[in-house]
Amino acid sequence: MDHLETVETMAKRDPAKTLRNQQIAKLTDEINELLDDVLELTGYQNEHSLNATYGGKYAEYIDIKNEVIDTPEQFVALYFQGFLRTLEGLGIYARSGNRYYDAYVHVRKHKKVLKWLKLFLTRTYLRNYDALSKRRPGVEEAEIWIGQKNAAYGIFVTPRFKNGEWENDKSEIRHFKPKYWTVGHILETGFVIPDEDERITFNDVEQYLSFFRNTLVRNSGSTHELAIAKLYCKFVRESAVAEDVPLLIPELRYGGKDVKHEHRLDFTVIDPYTLSKVGFELSPWSTHGLLSGTKGKTQKAINEEAQANFEREMSKLKAYFRKRGIPVIVYTDKDLQDYSKIFSDIEDYLTPSKRPKQLEFHALEDFLAFKSPN
Q1: Global pTM?
Q2: Which residue of 182, 283, 302, 328 has the smallest Cβ count within 10 Å?
Q3: Alpha-carbon span 73 to 46, nearest angstrom
Q4: Distance (Å, rounded) from C-alpha 356 to C-alpha 116?
């Protein structure tokens, strides 16, 4: 194998991660240029002490367990807000000799220290981007079940088998590295088998896609679902980072493992950033509008009755999921003549774009305006 073939067979790189690494390297150079001056201005003995005083406090100033932080600017703003709350909480102890107050004075007094701190915080955010930028599911959101009653599989975030059933290790949910409910997620956890200490795991993307198409979807017996599944597999294979593609989840059991289900959707996608769900229903009239006892009826009457049956069924289905906050997109016979058009709609939900929060631009200004009550 020559060098070119070796390069081509390597795993595809995530362009966003590559860019972040380049930014981190640039920030490190800028931080190092300022370091000696900052140490002299602040009087800290070494870089470790400096980092511990400022950078090591971000988990103290920011609620990183619940906060979803979309940008470095938002991270910096939340840091200064948290720092300010700490200063305000000191009361009369906000004075020289208090380590928090002294750290604050260095930032307010020296522009070079403030510049260093903002660069340091930006680098900290980029280094911890995956953990800081994703919403973390609550315990009730951290497990889903799919499939028919006698062929169900579970997907958990941090699965462990305890006292005869599967549960999440709640203490580890926040540290889960893959994006939630993506191909990377299923490669990390696999599927759990209900009430058995057994998992179905996958060595690579291709192994999962084969199981998805040939076991999960083919068992439904729907040619429509299988056609969409094939387009999904093609989409995943052609993605720059297959592991980051959201799962196309068949037969999601919205009430959990044991609840009797009025409805199950053909496919569901969960946004890895917001954790919001959207359902897709492939519904030919032959499934929902089929009539019996049509003898003696005109074709017009048959069509009208079938249409009414179909609309009634779809209304029930949409109402059922609307109560659960899940929008449903329904495709009927005419739509099902063009699978590529349907999948182009689904594709929009397989490439979610994060919408950054409104930044709190005045956080730094408020922070620097703090005055000790002494």
Answers
A1: 0.65
A2: 302
A3: 27
A4: 25
End-to-end CA distance of the chain: 73
* Cβ atoms 294, 309 nearer than 8 A: no
Q: Which two tokens stand for residue 228?
A: 């969409």
Contact 265, 319 (CB under 8 A): no
Outline where DSSP puts E strands in the chain.
143-146, 153-156, 159-162, 165-168, 191-192, 199-200, 249-253, 265-270, 277-282, 328-331
Residues 316, 320, 322, 324, Cα dihedral to 10° = 180
pLDDT band at 173, cuts 50/70/90?
confident
- Whether residue 257 contacts residue 148, with contact meaning beta carbons closer than 8 Å, is answered with no
Question: Which residues fall within 8 angstroms of residue 139, CB to CB, at 6 or more apart?
Answer: 168, 170, 173
Sorted by sequence, the CB contacts under 8 Å of residue 150 that are 6+ apart come out as none
Model confidence pLDDT, tens digit, residues 193-244: 998 999 999 999 999 999 999 999 988 778 999 999 999 999 999 998 999 9
Gyration radius of the chain over CA positions: 27
User: Which residues contact residue 271 at a Cβ distance below 8 angstroms, ignoring those fewer than 6 apart?
Assistant: 246, 277, 278, 349, 352
Q: Pick from 7, 38, 128, 32: which is nearest to 79 by CA?
A: 128
